[in-house]
Amino acid sequence: MRADLPFLFQGGMFFTLLFLASVFDIRKRTIPDTVCLLIALTGLISFEPVKLFGILTAIPLLLAALLWGGMGGGDIKLTAASGIVLSLQRGLAAMVIGLTALLLFYLIYSIVQKLRKRKRQKAFPLAPFLSVGCIAAYFLNGGIIL
Questions:
Q1: The domain containing residue 71 runs over which residues?
Q2: Does 146 reside within a domain?
Q3: How far is the C-alpha of 60 from the C-alpha of 3, rounded, in Å?
């Protein structure tokens, strides 16, 4: 269990910036570059060089955007920046958790819309789901444990 001051500060900043990215993505369907940059800088609070490999967590999203489209660059930058805080292994875990949360949300949403006989929305903001994954992965990483 890590509850020292740098981890508390880093966790607070990380969670706040993820929340901000989620709000921007929900309201405007964009994530400001400054938020992504601040998240990356948050990784410097308890910096370890191996965490730089966390940037590679964005590669699957980048490939998906290039091959199939429908994904914004902000989601890719958010994933890369979060990877610096989390590291490669935890960053990949964050992405899996976040995309699984999106899948479960969409499944429930689709069932509800079908029962209501309404048309389904095709695209959803990804940042809130990635943020949920990042927060879960931060806890897995030995970050703030309440």
A1: 5-99+126-140
A2: no
A3: 32
Q: Is there a domain that residue 108 lies in?
A: no
Q: Is 115 a domain residue?
A: no
User: Residue 120 gets which letter from DSSP?
Assistant: P
Number of domains in the chain: 1
Question: Whole-prediction pTM value?
Answer: 0.89
| Residue 125 contacts residue 26 (beta carbons within 8 Å) | yes
On whether residue 117 sits in a domain, the answer given is no
Token match 């964050």: residue? 94
Q: pLDDT of 62-89, one tens digit each? A: 999 999 887 889 999 999 999 999 999 9
Q: Report how far residue 17's alpha carbon sits from residue 96's, in angstroms, rounded to the nearest whole number.
A: 20
> How far apart, in whole angstroms, are the C-alpha atoms of residue 72 and residue 35?
15
What would the two tokens of residue 143 be?
């970050």
